[in-house]
Write a structure and sequence with these properties.
about 425 residues, Alpha-Beta Plaits, 5-stranded antiparallel β-sheet, 4-stranded mixed β-sheet, binds flavin-adenine dinucleotide
Length: about 425
């Protein structure tokens, strides 16, 4: 029987045959079949990265165990369906920590590897891939492959940020770090523009354990991007404030088609958000709760309604930053797009293959599904091609193969290495078809 699979941002959907294997026997049987398949973790990619028309969709949900935990060597071996929030809860209890945490706790380890995700610490610790010791890959034509920097190194490299197209990731071994405190102090610093936000973050970068911002991109002129920079510090001996019990995000089956966000409501929503944190700029939270700032705030996604939303993420290289910010401000004003969320993170390191990494400032924009958003994002594509840096393929359901090929210097290398390894296209997704790899 076919059932609907949607992207998290709700802008793409397909009818597919879904499988929820609960045993390795069942899983291996599915992987052996001649049909192309896709692998699905928690389904929290904004674009349709885990399903495609005519392709069987295999869930990792039942494979969520910790297989081995070596506290002495600070290594943990897990199954791909383990949620990142569960991973940190387990390691925290032993005084350890995993340093790269995307914004939501139910994102799976398999999804983190396949998208090489980043957290609020990227400038200090890099992306997820840099903390993967080894992994086990299952492929119908190649069997079981143990991959690391010393074994099948080329395939290991291709799988880290390989969009789940090199095979089924059956096990992942992660390197852990000592936990640096029993709670986290979060301080909100007011910033008066996007340039001010970057300057404030640069000033705080070496003094904080995690850093990100919230920016209002709907403000015109010199105050474009005014908002708050959040600096987080591990602390000892301070009691975290009590947190409400949180549930995992489930979007209801039915949502109103219209979004609650508009040019009329956004200024009010942004004002309420900003004033709330300016009135109480310092908070002490639990280490796990503070790690996932979106948990507990799922209403933000529900208010988009049934049509969903789009996100643009661009790592702007430092030499282009000033002009890129000016051009971004002009583009928002010219298209009159209503931005529902603006945010910055600092990035450091080098960029390779189709991974969302490299040196610069990561600018994130969310916007409702609207012609003005389409016009703005098309202008942003041109800005990225002109000014350099890369875009986040995992976040944008609209990016074309042409833009991806022009933005990523190693696009052709990724494509040919993937096709050499898997000439029969055993793994396929809507994302793969759209970006033509
Ligand atoms: C609220 C929210 C906040 C987020 N915050 C961040 C953030 O801060 N930083 C960031 O980088 N991303 C962030 N993301 C994006 C998210 O981390 C990635 O899209 C991630 O890949 C989602 O993982 P998932 O478990 O939902 O996997 P899915 O969306 O189901 O799949 C993602 C990809 O992983 C592949 N995959 C999953 N399991 C396996 C496996 N076992 N073997 C092979 N391939 C597999 C799938 O085929 C697919 O290509 C956020 C998403 C949400 C919804």
């Amino acid at each position: 029987m076919l059932s609907e699979v949607r992207s998290f941002a709700r802008t793409e959907s397909v009818q597919v045959r879904r499988h929820e294997p609960a045993s390795y026997g069942h899983l291996l049987g599915l992987l052996r079949s001649d049909k192309a398949r896709s692998i699905r973790g928690a389904g929290l990619s904004y674009c349709l990265a885990s399903a495609a028309d005519g392709v069987d969709c295999i869930s990792t949900g039942a494979f969520n165990r910790v297989l081995e935990f070596d506290r002495e060597r600070r290594l943990i071996r897990v199954e791909p369906g383990l949620a990142i929030g569960d991973l940190v809860s387990v390691v925290c209890a032993s005084g350890l920590w995993f340093p790269v945490l995307p914004g939501y706790p139910s994102i799976t380890i398999g999804g983190c590897v396949a998208m090489n995700v980043h957290g609020k610490t990227q400038h200090n610790v890099g992306n997820f891939a840099e903390h993967v010791e080894s992994l086990v890959l299952l492929h119908p034509d190649h069997g079981e492959l143990h991959c690391s920097t010393t074994s099948h190194a080329d395939l290991f490299d291709l799988t880290l940020g390989g969009f789940g197209l090199t095979g089924y990731i059956a096990e992942v071994t992660l390197r852990l770090q000592p936990l640096a405190g029993t709670a986290v102090r979060r301080v909100a610093h007011r910033v008066r523009s996007l340039d001010d936000a970057v300057a404030t973050m640069d000033d705080l970068a070496t003094k904080t354990d995690a850093l990100y911002s919230w920016n209002d991109f709907n403000r015109p002129g010199a105050s474009f991007g005014a908002g708050l920079v959040y600096a987080e510090y591990f602390v000892d001996g301070e009691e975290p404030e009590p947190e409400p019990a949180r549930s995992m995000p489930t979007l209801p089956g039915w949502l109103p088609r219209r979004s609650a966000y508009s040019a009329v409501t956004m200024p009010l929503i942004n004002r309420v958000y900003e004033v709330r944190d300016r009135l109480r700029p310092t908070r002490i939270g639990g280490v796990v709760q503070t790690a996932f700032p979106i948990a507990g705030n799922e209403i933000y996604f529900h208010l988009y309604g049934g049509r969903g939303f789009y996100e643009y993420q661009w790592i702007v290289p430092r030499p282009s930053l000033a002009v890129a910010i000016a051009r971004l401000r002009e583009a928002v004003a010219a298209t009159r797009a209503t931005i529902t969320l603006g945010s910055l993170k600092l990035f450091a390191g080098s960029q390779s293959l189709l991974r969302f990494d490299g040196d610069g400032v990561c600018i994130t924009l969310d916007a409702v599904d609207h012609p003005a958003t389409a016009a703005l994002f098309a202008r942003l594509d041109r800005l990225v091609i002109e000014h350099g840096g890369v875009v986040n393929i995992a976040k944008d359901s609209r990016l074309s193969a042409d833009v991806v090929a022009r933005v990523f210097p190693e696009y052709r290398d990724f494509r040919s290495r993937l096709r050499d390894f898997d000439p029969h296209r055993r793994f396929d997704t809507s994302l793969r078809r759209r970006i033509d790899v």
